[in-house]
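User: Phosphoesterase, Aquipseudomonas alcaligenes:
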Amino acid sequence: MKIGLISDTHGLLRTEALAALADCDHLLHAGDIGKPEILDALCKITPLTAVRGNNDEGLAWASALPERIELLLGGVGIYLTHQAADVPAHLPDSVRVVVTGHSHKPLIEERDGRLWINPGSAGPRRFKLPISVALLHLENGAVRAELVELQLTPT
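Assistant: Predicted structure for Phosphoesterase:
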């Protein structure tokens, strides 16, 4: 199973991000979505789970989105929230992957036996950080992640 991870679109869904996520079995958006049309477009690719980010607060369409969610995909427990600071110190043993956004800094790191992933920002560039998404591969109980830096087409 291949899960596409995207975050911090801030109202901009790039064609390069859509292409990178096109053949995924499920998508996770880690917040700061920006506008509901982004969720509509991502839902057309494959099933989508999304959380709201701090910049989505107070927006009527985003109020239905949870701030955090725990889900099971491909037999693997995943905890999804926008800010790493909001991840509880004690997660259930079933959670093997934590997905966050917010910092715009892509990250794949193992902490206390769990894989932590921040796909970075797929929206407007912040500072000199890359524009990226991530892919989470689940196969026979094995978990592997990869960052995908988007090669932007000049406009």
